[in-house]
Amino acid sequence: MPYVDLTLHSGGHCRERAWFVDRTRGFAKITLPALVAALRHPKAGLIFFDTGYGPHLANSTSFPARLYRRLLPFTLASEPLPTDGLSAIVVSHFHPDHIGGLRSLPAVPLYHSREALHQLRTLSPYQRARHAFLPELLPPSFTSRAIEDCPRVTPPDLAPFTEAYDLLHDGSLLAIPLPGHALGQHGLLCRHRDGSETFLVADAAWVLTNITHLSLPAEPALRILGHRPTILATLKKLHALHRRRPTLRLVPSHA
Ligand SMILES: [Zn+2]
Question: Fewest CB within a 10 Å sphere: which of 26, 81, 235, 245?
């Protein structure tokens, strides 16, 4: 049975009040990493899930980039990512803390939602900024692998999630739509060699308690980005999945 080995790396971090990501917590500042998942597949080689922040985000002089840095200041990772054998990058969604490192990495094909990128590219500059989409973070040219073109499958034991895209055509990496937080957001269900699985849930939750206790992010966090009712519907599905399969490892991007 094909599998992937998973390691998590820091793609930089920001500091935010704990209350912002879970309203039952206090106002002390906590560190929120921007995780990069490195997935090693026996045939496909190394695949990244997201890239974290990067120098292009730190140095962009566009107004939306300067505004982003002012609202959500961040620190770049101190260690470079291990890119030996990198063959593709899966983009969960197009927020700066997920695609900020793309242009510093080797030019490899990108798996992403074609629909989301098309929609983002056709927005007005104001709406693009509202969606925190900074087009200058994308490489000038790249090979697209649309998630929507991958075989559509039913994930074997992921109810209430019933829809998935089989990225490598062997069941080892399934992209799962996680709507609400950002246009075209997908998580990744990874199958490991011991038969266990990890569900990388991107920004469908910011901390695990959002899922395990259904304790919600602060209201501004729910409203600034994304569609509140859909964010809550996706969180409830993750909560139901966790209740049904408490041993399934769930990994938010910033936990
Ligand atoms: Zn996001």
Answer: 26
